[in-house]
Amino acid sequence: MSEEALVLRQDKDGIARLTLNRPAARNALSRPMIAALQAEFDRIAADPSIGVVILAGNGPAFCAGHDLKEMRSADYGASYAEDLFEACARLMQRIVSLPQPVIARVHGIATAAGAQLVASADLAIATDDARFATPGVNIGLFCSTPMVALSRNVSHKHALQMLLTGDLIDAPTALRFGLINEHVSGEQLDVAVEALAVKIASKSRHTLAVGKAAYYRQAELPLDEAYAYAKGVMVHNLQARDAREGIDAFIDKRHPTWCHG
Asked: Is-annotated flag, keyword Transit peptide (predicted)?
């Protein structure tokens, strides 16, 4: 399969939909698929027409994690593994650093690096019957890199429960843990994801980019440094044309007209 076919992209009304396209392999993240997904996110980062990204999967699952058959065919080599996990880490960081918010549209299973994708996304909506796991412990390969994203989304005890047992958790449990925002019926999944994407896409893209970057930056800072940093962000943000347009529109009781700058 060509690299171009591994990830499908469809743009509409400021929303880019990326679809993992290895349905027969449960969208396992082979090295070529990681490269294809990285390339699409890099293109989107430089595309001012896109305000929101939806990340989905073709076939019966969202993503089953890394491609174990590929690992075995590479004879579990250290150089292969170094390249694979470095590329995966770079991909997850690209999702977080992307100016546009990313919504994971989850169905079926999201396991190991698939759960890592969900945790790395800014928002996630799943079907009622979706299942999540970091099952590496069951095959002797602890989910250490998925752990990074997971531990930044859920509490320590919930993260360790998933990591140490490898058990599948259902969508209500994932919601309770904080891994997803909501779960809906399969028939309502696209409606719910689209509604959320459209709502976010209606905002100023400049403001969204400022806010997303600031959220992740302040979360890593001590409280006093976080407030000092956030103050600077707001002072800078207030000088933007969209901030002034938004405030004027609110006072004048009209809808704002964004210039996305």
From this structure: yes
One DSSP character per residue, 243-257 reads HHHHHHHHHHTS---
* Superfamily of domain 3-201, CATH level 4: 2-enoyl-CoA Hydratase; Chain A, domain 1 (3.90.226.10)
Is 197 exposed, middle or buried, given 0-12, 13-18 or 19+ CB atoms closer than 10 A? Answer: buried
Q: Which tokens hold the place of 239?
A: 């000088």
Of the candidates 211, 209, 230, which has an alpha carbon nearest to the alpha carbon of residue 221?
230
Q: Which fold has domain 205-252?
A: Lyase 2-enoyl-coa Hydratase; Chain  A, domain 2 (1.10.12)
Position 17, amino acid: R
Please name which of 6, 111, 17, 21 lies closest in space to residue 58, comparing C-alpha atoms. 21
Q: What is the pLDDT of residues 181-231, one digit of tens each?
A: 999 999 999 999 999 999 999 999 999 999 999 999 999 999 999 999 999
| Residue 161 pLDDT exceeds 80 | yes
